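Database export, one record per block. Field names are fixed; values are copied verbatim from the stored entry.
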Amino acid sequence: MKVSYETDLYARIRQELDAVAMIDCHEHLQREREFPTGDDVHVGLLFLHYAPDDLIAAGMPMEEMARVRPNLLLFPNPEADPSLSPEARWRLLEPWYRKAWNTGYCEALRIAIRDLYGIDEFSESTMTKLTEAMRGEIRPGFTRKVFDKAGIDFAMQSPLGPGLVFNPDYNFDCFICDMCDAFTGFPIPELAQQADMDILCLDDYLKVIDFYFERDARCACAFKVARAYDRTLFWEDVPKNAVENTFNRLLAFNDRPDRRDIQALEDFILHYLCRKCGEYDLRMKFHTGIHGGNGNIITNSRAALMANLFMKYPKTGFDVFHISYPYQEELAVLAKNFPNVTVDFCWMWIINPSAARRALSDMLDAVPANKIHGFGGDYIFVEGTYGHAVIARREIARVLCEKVEEGRFSEAYAVELGRMLLRDNALDNFGLEKRRAAYRPRAGEDPPPAT
């Protein structure tokens, strides 16, 4: 059935957006050597990320979800039940899936299995066919195949180890990797070992940070900070002499500072990282807003808590993830006021498609369009990225159509904006062309042939 927004204007704008080779601004995708094989490939893989949050929120017992999922090296799950048939596995999921069918998380999976595996809907009768299709497709080369179908040029990847700070072992064809903030968590022995440096005092720790930036910052795409999951995003400007004793206590064999002292030390280190990112022109990415999983303190993750950083470090770029949902209106003001703040819609199109659409419409009336990054899949499995990409293009096209119909934009300008949102802004704001060139040899790729 044709839906109300599928007008001739929508069709033309959507066709133009579909032709854009997107820059995917955020992922956590598996390396292809980490792909599951054999009996570990089943519908439970599609419930490793996001959709299970909604099923559990709907009431599904966590122990039942654990039975459904596989036990993987990267995602250990000792409660996995390998004896389940495809149909039995679905029978555990189905009552809760039906209760959460309406959400963006579940829609993304339906789109993925429809377009990638030829399955119209999850059901007991389709489970064997879906399992067979997955086992026939999930193998080396699958990521690029899915990216091509989704219209993704490459993704900015936030790796899940094994290196604490930088993991350039993702192939250049599909990825460029973030540096990740391990520093504010103080895994001191591991950082010292991976840097092959001694850490005997706070000055040594800062030298280790300097080492990682000198080695990796020029070929990374950004510096990712995800601390909103376990602390407030207000980072107080703490002097060094106020935290040196706390750091020394961390080094002690049988001592441990209290949480308030550790947070002050984290604050000091984060400010140091802001200065380093400014020095290397490396944009910082901050998780803000909604948390993954089931339950957290949402008020800790408001982007507005970081306004002191935006003011103190005007030479450092800050990319604010997930539009700080549900605090997106505050973020619109921050992006409007601060030249060094950009808005990132990664994850947002599946969190709440209609809220994302409203937020983009509002921001296009208030925020310079070059400051908005339109898409990041933010998945650990590439099928989810595909479903998310389809939703993102659909919803962005709807917003642009509304602006044309309202007389705010010409059709030509709407198309230009679509390309900015999906590609050009990320290339420009993150400096990705030069960073990709520097990343290529670190990923083990030969330079392109001279022309």
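Remark 1: The two ends are 50 Å apart (CA to CA).
Remark 2: Residues 47-137 form one domain.
End of record.
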